[in-house]
Amino acid sequence: MHTYREVLALPEFRVLFLVRCVTMAAISIGSLALGATTYASTGSPVLTALSMFGGPLITLLGSATVLSASDAMGPRRASTIMPIAYSVAFLLQALPNLSWGLRFAILAMPFLAGSATSGSFMRLMHEILPPDGFVLGRATLNIAVGVMQVAGYGLGGVMLVWLSVSSLFLVAGATMAVAVAALRFGLRERPGVASDKGLLTRTRDANRALLGSPTTRPVYLALWVPNGLIVGCEALFVPYAGHSGAGYLFAATAAGMLLGDVVVGRFLPPRHRDRLVGPLRMLLALPYLGFFFAPPPAIALACGFVASIGFSASLLLQERLVRVSGPDSRGQAFGLYSTGLMVGQAVGATIGGLLATWLGPAYAMGALAVASLCSTVALAPGLRRSAPAPDHTTIAH
């Protein structure tokens, strides 16, 4: 598969695309609303960053114990669990006069509910698409993420001018309910993977194999660490630029991510893909060094846009993950990636909030960029083990 028309010609993939669009719009609007109300009530960069990006820390418990449910359950059923919890959580956040502690407890709901099934959506996509359509299909879903983050954060910033925060939460909750309906009625169910091992044992054994392998471990770290540190920069947009300015910064970074995914997924020849993993990871961090100088809004927008093009390196690393993981544990492999990515983002946001408390948002963003560059350089030797062989044969663990 080489064109968007080919992947979107598949009816079930069109449903996945719709679900991704609706889900990201809801999460963007709800996240901006939560960040705005937390900063308004606490004035704390740390709590604001945690409110927007800290929820994934909760998924660590499920990933360590029941993540193999991503393979054991039917993927359609598993994929609806987190959207249902998100819808309920956003509607609860709309209640007036909630303390920030209670808001954080509600924030935990979708992450607790989805911690066992975070790889199911990617498993669905892998089963719907033919093998040669993975990168383009993943890029197409990332386009949905980029477009709807631009729309969601931009619309959320405008809505915050005219509407209350509670209204934004209601919009987000209703939008997420649409995603649940599309999954339930737009996809056929597929069987889970049978196993004679218990859920806890299977989860433990697969996690140990994936994280213990000298081939897959560097891929995971390269997917988690540089990204998470740069998300720490994004978590400081509200303290750096204020509520309305942060919406534009989030929209600019989402647009940059969209451009990178389009170029890498649609136009970059397969033979050149792996050569760009390192350069794209460097691009992800370099523009944020400019924040050491506290740039004005226009320059800040440009820096965020250019840097986010580097997120497209994740497409290439996910392609490696498909190649080096087995079909019986692919849901868990991607669930582990998803959990680690979100946890890395949460850790990055926490570090960013702490640094901003001591140094201010601008210097904190520059420091996180330096750390991201260092991690990219340190991980380069280990990534050579998962690089495709000259004849593109599968690499064994």
Automatic annotation (TrEMBL):
InterPro entries: MFS, MFS_trans_sf
GO molecular function terms listed in the Swiss-Prot or TrEMBL record: transmembrane transporter activity
Listed name of the protein: Membrane protein
Gene Ontology terms: cellular component: plasma membrane
Keywords on record: Cell membrane, Membrane, Transmembrane, Transmembrane helix
Topology with respect to the bilayer: Multi-pass membrane protein
Subcellular location: Cell membrane
Family annotation (SUPFAM superfamilies): MFS general substrate transporter
Membrane-spanning residues: 15-40, 46-67, 79-96, 102-122, 143-162, 168-187, 219-240, 246-264, 276-293, 299-322, 334-356, 362-383
Pfam families named in the record: MFS_1
UniProt xrefs under CDD domains: MFS_MefA_like
